[in-house]
Structure formats: C-alpha cells, structure tokens
Amino acid sequence: MCHTCQVTSRDISRPVCLLGLGLIGGSLLRDLSALGHPAFGFNRSPSGTKAAQQEGFDVSSDLVATVQRAEQENALLMIATPMPAVASILAVIKEHAPSCGITDVVSVKAQVLDLVREAGLVERYVGGHPMAGTSESGWQASRKELFKGAAWVVTFDHAYDSPEGPGKEWIELWTDVVRMAKMVKAEVIPSRVDAHDSAVARISHLPHVLAETLAIVGDNGGALSLSLAASSFRDSTRVAATSPSLVRAMCETNSEALLVALDEALALLQDARAHLSEASPSMEELADNGYRSRIRYEARSGHSRQGADSVSPSPISGRPVLSINPGSPHWLRSLEQAENLGARIEVSVF
To answer: Which of 36, 169, 237, 297 has an alpha carbon within 20 to 30 A of 244's alpha carbon?
Structure first.
C-alpha cells in the first residue's frame, strides 16, 4: 500500500524566484511570503514593483540582477510572464543562472517545452500551470490564497527523454515544484504537455473564444439587449473581460488543439441550427446532452475510486488522490495513471 504525507515549507529545498508579478506570480509571492518561505521576484512594471515594495515584498525591476541572485541562492526560477516573453526570459536564465531549476505557469505547455529544448535547458525544467485566475491582471490583481483548491498541472515529459530515466537532480526539482504547489493549497495533477494542451483547449481556451463571441452578439443587439442582460449573459461572458493580449497569447499558441475543440463546437452549433430551422424547431438534443455533461462535471467534484488501496479522496475537492514516491521503480506508471484519472497527487519519500 502507498502512503501519503503532509507537505510543509521545510520540504522545499530552495528559495523561489518569481519572474513576473502579475496575477499568478504576485499571488504566489504573497502566499509563499506569508508562509515564511524565502521568495523574491522581478517585475518589469516600475509601478507594480514600487507597489510590491511598499507592501514589504522583496521585488526588483532589474531582471539580470534578480536572475543572478537566484543563481547565488540556488533558487527555483518561476517564469510567470505571458508566453511572448518566455524566449527572452530563458535567454537571460541560460546566461546568468546556469544551475537553477526552472518551472513556469504559462497556460500552454508544448510551445514552452519547445523553447526550453531549444535553449538547452530541458534537464533543468519542470512545466506547471495553475488553473486559477480572474479576468484581471497585474500586481494589483494579485491576492492571497488564489490557488486554494485549484488544480495545478505539473508536467513530466523529460522523464522519458532517456532510456535510463531522469537524473536525481531533475527528480528533486520535480518534487520541489509539486511541494511548492501543495504549500499554497493547490491540488497537483501530473500531465504530459500534449495531453495538457488538448485539455485546456476544451475547458479554458475555447470558453474564451465563445465568451468573446457571445459578448459581440449581445453588444450587436444594442442598448435594449444590454439593458436586459442578466446573470446568464454576465456569467457566460465573464472571461471576455480578460486583456485581449493575454487571450491572444493563450489561443494563438495553442491553435492546433484549439481548432480541434472549435470544430467540435461548430459542429454542435450547426446541428442545433439545423434543428431550429425545421418546421417544428427543437433544442432537445443539445439541451439534453449539455445538461448531462454539466451534471457529470458537477458529480466529478465528489468522485472517488473505491477499492484501490493507493487512491483516497482529496479533502478539498473530493477527487481521487494518488500517493507518488518520486524516483521509485514504478513512479512514472503512477503518474500516467494519475494523468488518465485526472487525479490529484501527494508525494512521499522513504
């Protein structure tokens, strides 16, 4: 039987250096600092940097100096910038922090991994993506406990790059990334990058496309339509308030997976249109199938697999939890199982 363990700040073997202090990076800095874990960061915005400093946080607007400090302190580097800035950040890391471990919070993973491979940094990289956020951005949007109960994807593709498996340093880095996410009360789900990008295309990026579309259609109805708009319109268009540059960065860099999901959505809409144009208009099929899909989503929050001795329900979400012993003989098989189940994980070391 596998065992689970509680994770504390002492389990992380290094400080955390946050490169980018917007909603995600800033919220992570707040949480780590509140827990007493060493954390510092870089913010390109002078006003954001000043605001963070005035609140007592260890923040600089000098990227090179911050990365050099991370190298001196053997910090975990967290890239928390939009996708267009990742390549330039990696170049600075390669030059000024040649031994630091790297992770990120970018919402697409395949393109980030490609850039990491091109930079020759793959042995020092573990991808991440917290499924948390709001339509707001910047330091002023950051807040404590943003990640509480949120899914946080941690990737493990590099584990397959060598027939001998990953080295000890990479396994330790992977474990630290998991423990950092657990520190801020997130629920870690392991995934490989292609599976992640396919999933987020359906549940994150396509909703942005649909929200923009609904916002435009509603606005085209004029003043009366907007005056009558209530919760269904407000809720379905909430993410349309996200900065257009962030929406573009997400959707354009995940276009291949997004096109698959978008084609599926268009087929459903075309079928609904065909039924509505008949002599006896009908929404039965779409409404019934959509209702059942929503019920399955809601039921999953309390789902647990019975009879598997390594699986127990998460105390926060009720979803299945697998215990992982990083570097053990069958740990990659356990990660694959967790990926297939969408299960949360705990790490245990013997």
So the answer is: 297
